[in-house]
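Feature request, filed as a ticket because there's no other form

It would be nice if the structure record came with a short human-readable summary line next to the tokens. Right now we just get the raw output. Example of a typical job, pasted below so the devs can see what we mean:
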Amino acid sequence: PGVWDYVRVNVYELSVEELTVSEYLHFKEELVDGESSDKYVLELDFEPFNAAFPRPTRSSSIGNGVQFLNRHLSSIMFRNRESLDPLLDFLRVHKYKGHPLMLNDRIQSVSKLQSALAKAEDHLSKLQPETPYSEFEYLFQGMGFERGWGDTAVHVLEMMHLLLDILQAPDPSILETFLGRIPMVFNVVILSPHGYFGQANVLGLPDTGGQIVYILDQVRALEKEMLERIRKQGLDFTPRILIVTRLIPEAKGTTCNQRLERISGTEHTHI
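Raw output as currently delivered:
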């Protein structure tokens, strides 16, 4: 179940030949585009995402993949303390454009991480809640911490409490909250290849409908949310959202022939 096999049947020779996935997809493309000898065809291989992933067996897990994975991860961490090492390794190597985030090389083990978190917690508890991170950034670098924990003392303390709870007794809800607050998403690409994608005079054109309005509204809200999250994480990075669509030379009075078009109401979002 869940495995496809592809075959070619020769009705003249009454023979059956097994096809590879690539051969089958190439045949389907020729049905639409005609015979093609182009060697540079776009291929998307999603198989690596399935490698060694736990698979839910209950129907109640359908649609709740994130919760299922968090329960799975937290149960492994609870049974085997060594399974915390990959989390530590990730926090140590996490970077963006060469800027280290979360932890640096001063923290080499889970025990040293717990000790550093305890010292940081003690220091933060003596500060005013709204103390900006810049005022204790140098001290925290010496302890082994980099930017990304929060913009103020109270936000950094909340984040560190989550990690301390995970190290002490992993819980799926706490793990989900902690992972969701780690700064990781700074660039978003949205593919919209159909129709005339533009900001004006496009509705009613072939293959163009309400999805244009929907995406434009969503990216404005998305940029605002990303900017707010990055600020709360204590970072000053600039996010970018890019809507990738077709470049149409005969634009019919629209802007669909422009290579790059900034979306009105945004600063860092383009078509």
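Something like this underneath would help us a lot:
The chain has a mean pLDDT of 87.
The CA atoms of residues 53 and 134 lie 40 Å apart.
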